[in-house]
């Protein structure tokens, strides 16, 4: 589907600063509505509330479309105004610079629908649906396949892009297809083979800095193959076990992004970091978690720059001790200052 219709809808923008928003926001924020939609684009929107680390500056522009048409119109708006685009899911694998992000940040969080088809065992869901919520829903229905995904606080879109995984399972194992919106406005349905998956990686992962004009491919919905027909009590028990395992091995009590680094075969990053003596090491409000050394937690008041500096310090120390370059799993977006 081309988005020429959507383009026609956004040629003119209108309605700027409103009284309501002036009272809500002491900054110079303003709101623009895409023509013929109730979809608001907000300027200077703080991103810290939209990332699990609870850090990060403001988006130059921010929009959270509620349907495909509004998403297409948002992309077209960015194109017309030559704004770089950053896609945000639940922000649970992102480190956003304290300086914020240029261009338009599009949150997929409000793209919602889900359908469990008992005939095929397939689950078709919009990009903004929550992965852990789907895992619990599937369990309650007695559908196997998503037990491992509980505790991963991301969206469907983020999980498809990141190839989220745990307990020897991952998204690529159960994905039937993903619908993506291309920068040229066409909607395509891609198979896992077309997406090209490997450990925590896919071809849908874009360049990590929104400095270039244009837009990455956006996942709009996905279909997963599950196995219905099991006693819900059994699937719930397995799901609860996975959640419990996480609560005892991973720090859920402070903001984080989950694992900071990919595991460098045959080692685990957590083991390497602990053996390097870095557990508990702290820069500003950012700390190598005491419970799991591959987690950096925000102990309160951390800046993105603290977390970035700690990531760099860990990489440098692990390189020195083990001659291994740890590769970040977390996506660092915006400007960061490397230590001199
Ligand atoms: C406590 C905790 C535990 C975690 N445990 C795990 C774990 O066990 N396994 C695991 O794999 N991960 C884990 N994570 C990391 C994270 O939850 C996953 O990577 C998750 O899949 C990210 O989803 P998201 O919606 O938050 O994506 P975001 O963090 O918002 O985005 C991640 C990347 O995907 C892109 N993106 C997001 N949505 C779309 C879309 N619709 N279209 C195109 N691009 C998109 C973004 O631009 C960005 O590059 C954990 C995180 C936390 C905080
Ligand atoms: N450290 C960090 O930076 C972050 C951590 N988190 C944490 O990640 C975790 C994700 O946990 P997870 O359990 O996967 O999902 P959530 O706790 O997010 O729950 C998701 C949904 O699943 C349902 N649900 C939760 N537990 C059960 C259960 N035992 N039985 C049946 N239904 C259930 C809930 O329904 P209902 O409400 O109806 O019970 C809820 O709608 C949360 O503990 C959250 O606090 C999240 C973001 C960031
Ligand atoms: C949290 C994430 O994913 C997690 C996922 O939840 C879990 C559960 O399946 O397995 C991976 O962690 P992990 O490899 O660290 O798993 P764990 O079982 O906790 O640890 C592996 C090994 O390292 C050791 N370990 C871990 C942490 C630590 O501080 N010290 C240590 O020695 C453990 O004792 C264990 O022998 C994923 N991490 C990566 C980078 O692949 C994420 O990607 O964000």
Q: Would you mind describing this structure in some detail?
A:
The protein has helices at residues 4-10, 19-24, 68-80, 131-141, 156-162, 171-174, 192-195, 232-249, 269-275, 304-322, and strands at residues 13-14, 31-34, 40-46, 58-63, 85-88, 94-96, 101-107, 114-117, 122-126, 165-166, 169-170, 175-181, 187-190, 197-198, 201-202, 218-225, 282-283, 286-288, 296-298, 331-333. It contains ten helices and 20 strands. Residues 1-26 and 208-212 have low confidence and may be disordered. It is globular and about 55 Å long. The strands form six sheets. It has a six-stranded mixed β-sheet. Strands 8-9-16-12-13 form a five-stranded antiparallel β-sheet. By secondary structure, it is α+β, with helices and mostly antiparallel strands. α1 (4-10) packs across α3 and α4 runs antiparallel to α8 (232-249). NADPH dihydro-nicotinamide-adenine-dinucleotide phosphate binds at residues 52, 92, 132-133, 136, 150-151, 153, 240, 243, 252, 255-256. Residues 166-167, 249, 258-259, 262-263, 268-271, 274, 292-294, 329 line the site of uridine-diphosphate-2(N-acetylglucosaminyl) butyric acid.
The number of E-state strands comes to 20
Report Rg: 21 Å
SSE class = alpha+beta
> Approximately what portion of the residues adopt beta-strand conformation?
15-25%
Number of helices: 10
Query: Main beta sheet, described?
Result: 6 strands, mixed
Q: Roughly how much helix do the residues carry, as a percent range?
A: 25-40%
Tell me, briefly, the overall form: globular
Euclidean distance between termini CA atoms: 49 Å
Order of helices and strands: HEHEEEHEEEEEHHEEHEEHEEEHHEEEHE
| Side-by-side strand order of the widest sheet | 1-2-3-4-7-5
Name the average pLDDT: 90
Bound heterogens, unique: flavin-adenine dinucleotide, NADPH dihydro-nicotinamide-adenine-dinucleotide phosphate, uridine-diphosphate-2(N-acetylglucosaminyl) butyric acid
- The parts where pLDDT drops under 50 for at least 5 residues are 1-26, 208-212
């Amino acid at each position: 589907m081309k988005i020429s219709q959507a383009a026609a809808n956004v040629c003119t923008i209108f309605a700027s600063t409103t009284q309501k928003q002036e009272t809500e926001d002491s900054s110079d924020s303003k709101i623009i509505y895409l023509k013929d939609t109730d979809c608001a684009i907000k300027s200077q929107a703080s991103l810290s509330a939209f990332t699990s680390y609870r850090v990060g500056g403001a988006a130059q522009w921010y929009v959270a479309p509620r349907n495909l048409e509004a998403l297409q119109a948002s992309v077209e708006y960015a194109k017309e105004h030559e704004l770089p685009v950053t896609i945000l899911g639940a922000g649970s694998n992102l480190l956003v610079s304290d300086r914020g992000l240029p261009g338009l940040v599009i949150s997929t969080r409000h793209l919602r629908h889900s359908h469990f088809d008992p005939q095929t065992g397939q689950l078709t869901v919009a990009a903004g649906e929550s992965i852990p919520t789907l895992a619990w829903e599937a369990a309650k229905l007695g559908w196997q396949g998503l037990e491992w995904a509980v505790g991963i606080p991301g969206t469907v879109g983020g999980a498809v892009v990141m190839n989220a995984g745990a307990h020897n399972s991952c998204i690529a194992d159960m994905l039937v297809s993903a619908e993506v919106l291309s920068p040229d406005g066409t909607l395509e349905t891609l198979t896992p083979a077309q997406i090209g998956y490997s450990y925590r990686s896919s071809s849908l992962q874009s360049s990590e800095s929104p400095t270039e004009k244009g837009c990455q491919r956006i996942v709009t919905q996905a279909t997963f193959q599950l196995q219905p027909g099991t006693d819900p009590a059994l699937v719930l028990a397995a799901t609860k076990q996975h959640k419990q395992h996480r609560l005892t091995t991973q720090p859920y009590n402070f903001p984080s992004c989950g694992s900071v680094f990919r595991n460098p075969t045959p080692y685990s990053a957590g083991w390497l970091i602990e053996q390097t003596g870095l557990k508990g090491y702290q820069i500003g409000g950012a700390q190598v978690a005491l419970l799991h050394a591959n987690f950096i937690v925000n102990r309160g008041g951390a800046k993105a720059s603290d977390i970035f500096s700690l990531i760099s310090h860990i990489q440098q120390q692990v390189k020195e001790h083990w001659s291994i370059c740890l590769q970040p799993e977390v996506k660092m977006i915006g400007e960061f200052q490397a230590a001199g």
